[in-house]
């Protein structure tokens, strides 16, 4: 962190930090003690085809997928990935990001130039309108960014489409996701999620605003809620 001058921010070194830390740890431990007893599993797989790695039936899905905001998790986590041996060179990072939903690092960006949508992509008037505005925004990167947004939603459509075989009747979904803007065009990710879920037969769909994000005023984080064939 950095500050403009010494008096801009009172760090508060006169506070008994050891006491504050101890109390914080006690608070966390007290909350952790209330967790239900059970077992958790970590599996490696492609979220665009959950049935390949998990067996249903599940009655609750809670996740926070990447936002459609060209944020590369691989770019941010590369040092740790190298240290832990998951990546060997720069190309490995690009290859991994290309397989990720919303990945844009390295070769993932260059591949978007020639990328074409699959024949079974989700047909949406709202998405098509947003893609056209982004591509025609008068910026040299407009076409690439339009492809990025299209691929993002194509990947999410594959995820929703192939999630249903592992869901029990009445299963509840919660997707924590934010909207995005590209060259002044608002991409309402939450509404497009809702549109996809409705097309697949989900019901009780809601887009619940959770918080304003610390960026542009129109950017909000939502909880997209839905239920699978209740009853």
Model description:
Helix content is 38%, strand content 19%. It has helices at residues 17-32, 73-83, 90-99, 107-112, 125-135, 142-163, 189-199, and strands at 58-63, 167-178, 180-182, 185-187, 202-212, 220-228. A four-stranded mixed β-sheet has the order 1-2-6-5, covered by helices on one side. A two-stranded antiparallel sheet has the order 3-4. α5 (125-135) runs antiparallel to α6 and α6 packs parallel to α7. The protein is globular, with a radius of gyration of 21 Å. The termini are far apart.
Concise structural overview:
With 231 residues, the chain is α+β, with helices and mostly antiparallel strands.
Characteristics:
231 residues, alpha+beta, Rossmann fold, four-stranded mixed sheet, two-stranded antiparallel ribbon, 38% helix, 19% strand
N-to-C CA distance: 53 Å
The major β-sheet equals: 4 strands, mixed
The quaternary state of the protein chains shown equals single chain
**CATH fold node name:** Rossmann fold
List the secondary-structure elements in sequence, H or E: HEHHHHHEEEHEE
The name of the CATH architecture is 3-Layer(aba) Sandwich
Total number of β-strand segments?
A: 6
Poorly predicted runs of 5 or more residues: none
CATH class: Alpha Beta
As a percent range, the share of helical residues equals 25-40%
Structural class: alpha+beta
Mean pLDDT over all positions: 88
Rg from Cα: 21 Å
Shape: globular
| Percentage of β-strand residues | 15-25%
Q: Largest sheet, order of strands side by side?
A: 1-2-6-5
